[in-house]
Amino acid sequence: MRRALGALPTLVLLVGAAYCLLPVAWVVVASTKSGGELFSTSTFSPGTAALANLGDLSSYRDGLFWRWMANSALYAGVGALLSAALSGLTGYALAKFAFRGRSLVFNALIAGVLVPSVVLAVPQYLLISEVGLADTHLSVLVPSVLSPYGIYLARIYAAAAVPDDVVEAARTDGAGEGRILWSVAAPMMVPGLVTVFLFQFVAIWNNFLLPFIMLGDDGKFPVTLGLYTMLNQGNTTPALYTLAIVGSLVSVLPLIALFLTLQRYWRVDLLSGAVKA
C-alpha cells in the first residue's frame, strides 16, 4: 500500500507530461506529411514530405514566413532585453532604497500583474495611435517593455540576493550608486534577470492580441499572427494547413534553443559575484 502511494506522484507527473507532450508529438509527425497524407493517414503515422514542406514554407510569398520569424525575434529579443533591464533597475530601487510611497508603488505594480492584457489592449492602441505609431514595429515593441510581473520578480530577487552589508560597504568605499548597481548588484542579480528575460521573451513571442490590434501590414506581423492568417486562408487553400503546421513547429525551435542556452544561469548561486565571507 505504501509503495503504491509512493508511486502516485510519479504517475501523476507522467500523465501531466503526456498531456503536455502529446500535441507536440502530433505537430512533429504532422509536419512530415503532405496535404493528402495529412487527412488520409492515421494520426501518428510519419509522412514523406518533411523537406518538401519546409521548402514550400520558405518559398511562401517570397519568404514571408522568415520575415515573420525575424519580426518575432525583434519584438521578443529587444523587448525582453529592455524589459529585463528596466525591471532590474526598478526592482533594485524598490528593494534597496527607502523613500516615501515605496509601498504604494509596489502595491500598484502587484495590482498591474492582476490586470488581464486583454483589458489594456484597446487603451494601448488608442494611446499608440494618438502619437502616430500605429502599424509600426514600435507599436508592438513599446508596450512590451514594461512588465509589472518582471519588476515584481526583480524586486523580490534583489532583496534576497543583494546583501545590504555589501551595498553599504561599497558606499563606504566611496562608490556611487550607479557603480554599485553595475559592478556589485547586477552580477548578483543575473539569475533573476535571466528569468525575467526568459519569461518576457516567451510572453512577447507568443503574444497574439497586441499585434493583432496594432498591425495591419502583414510584413510587420510576428509569427503568431502570420500563422493565424495562414491558417485562415487554409479554408480556401487546404495546402496551407500543412504549411501552418510546419511553421508552428519551426516557431517553437527558437524558444527551445533559448531555454537550453540560458538554463545554466539558474544554477548560479544566489550570491554569485559577491565577496566571499
Could you describe the 3D structure shown?
- Helices cover 74% and strands 0% of the residues.
- It has helices at 2-30, 35-40, 50-59, 64-96, 102-114, 117-130, 137-145, 148-161, 164-172, 177-188, 190-205, 209-214, 223-233, 239-262.
- It is globular.
- The N and C termini lie far apart (49 Å).
- Residues 269-277 have low confidence and may be disordered.
Shape descriptor reads globular
**Element-by-element helix/strand order:** HHHHHHHHHHHHHH
Number of helices: 14
Helix content: over 70%
Contiguous low-pLDDT stretches (5 residues minimum) are: 269-277
* Helical/strand content category: mainly alpha
Largest sheet: none
Please render the helix and strand layout as text:
Elements: H1 2-30, H2 35-40, H3 50-59, H4 64-96, H5 102-114, H6 117-130, H7 137-145, H8 148-161, H9 164-172, H10 177-188, H11 190-205, H12 209-214, H13 223-233, H14 239-262
What characteristics describe this protein?
single chain; 277 residues; 14 helices; globular; disordered C terminus
In summary, what is this structure?
Helix content is 74%, strand content 0%.
